[in-house]
Amino acid sequence: MVSSNIAVTHASTGLVVADVTRAERISSHVIRITLGGDALADWEHVGFDQWFRLAVPTSDAARFDNLSDRFGVSGYLKYLTLPRSTRPVIRNYTVREFRPDTAELDVDFVIHGGVGIAGPWAERLPVGDTVGLIDQGAGFRHKDAADVLLVGDESAMPAVLGILRDLDRNATGTAVIEVPAADDVQPDEAPDGVDVRWIIRSGGDRPGTRALEEVTALVPAPTVRAFSAGESRLATGARRHLVSGCGVPKENVAFCGYYKLRPDHA
Asked: Do 257 and 4 contact (CB within 8 A), yes or no?
């Protein structure tokens, strides 16, 4: 995470090892991986934008039994001491959907044309691979919010959709989600009083720019509860508009820069 005020919590489940049971491309830029296994029966699902550390195998020799149950400072330092030949790559992801009746967990991966490690791994449709998960809780703190403003790009789409799904059904407000293609738009389960605005990015647009323009044209009440995530400029720019421009208290805005584009993307 580039910049964030999202609190990190640790569930008692610790490290959970699961297997990829299904994998499919569901749109131009999204692949959905379904995880299953006995260990997921104890998954402490909290909903909303629940996120976790995902350990992805980089070779057949990858090991998960020597990873820490927590990924704080000590867990990270231990991770760095592990042999590179057997050390999985760890990235942050959001729970797209959890089904306790079947102990299945869906994760959506954004594909960037072979860039990175987790995305290309998902693009292989790696059914049968083993992964590790360390639950880190949910960042959106206002579970009973009456008025909300949510914004994210495609990397934050699972988080925004999860919050919309789990909000109080009487909640009102606006959600802005920017995606690179029209078929990347997903069904939402927003309360009737929340206006969900999908922004389709043009090819030359910097990710997050159009979503930020949409949000900065809004003037919500200072009592709004907000969530802003995705590319760093979008996450921090929306927060700055709400706090400095609209008088929203800082504690009312959960924000997280999931990644930061290189200067040549400016």
From this structure: yes
